[in-house]
Amino acid sequence: MGKIALITGATSGIGFASAKKFAENNYDLIITGRRKERLDKLRGELLGKYKIKVLALSFDVRSLSEVVENLGNLDNEWRDIDVLVNNAGLAVGLNHIDDGVIDDWERMIDTNVKGLLYVTRVISPGMVERGRGHIVNIGSIAGKEVYENGNVYCATKHAVDALSRAMRIDLVKHGIKVSNVAPGLVRTEFSDVRFKGDSKKAEVPYKGMKPLSGEDIAGVIFFCVNQPPHVNIDDILVMPAAQASSTVVHRT
Which of 48, 130, 168, 240 lies at a C-alpha separation of 20 to 30 Å from 145? Predict the structure, then answer.
């Protein structure tokens, strides 16, 4: 039987590219996302190009009941998940803490932290039972340092960083690998969401430099997963060549 990878947030960006990367390498896929039309389109593309199976599940990771309903009772052919990529995440707004938008805070905390926890809580017991598996959490440079106006987003990605290390400690005795992949600037829908659809503002972070792509990070994720059994990539920070920190970017 082929290996199975579960990828959350597969309708765009890193998740979308990761689905294609794992499909290229003969993984059967469970892909999730909130935008059903995009998810179904991706499923069709993958089935048409690769000799794999694809299960598309449209739900919101922020809802525990939806996570349990969709992932808690998988058919036998889908239960033995080898790789979980906790990719679903977002940044919303750029405000100082004193004028922060509460709804923005809740969206980021509910998606980036609670959503990751909900999915992991449902999937990890099966990995423990089988004595194998690999969990890849998508963190950020924002989980390594903080910057002005990044307060709550940085806090959520610091939480992902801490959770990745804690998961590693909790699960090591069960033969489960855990990796934290922390990218710098990646050109996806990330900036469009952060600036709430303002396309002009969304382009500003990438001006005068070459950012990473979703495909770049998908390659790193697959590198982590494709190591020998005795090797675990605990934590990997991936930056564009032109970026040295959250706020230091060489632009031409």
Answer: 168
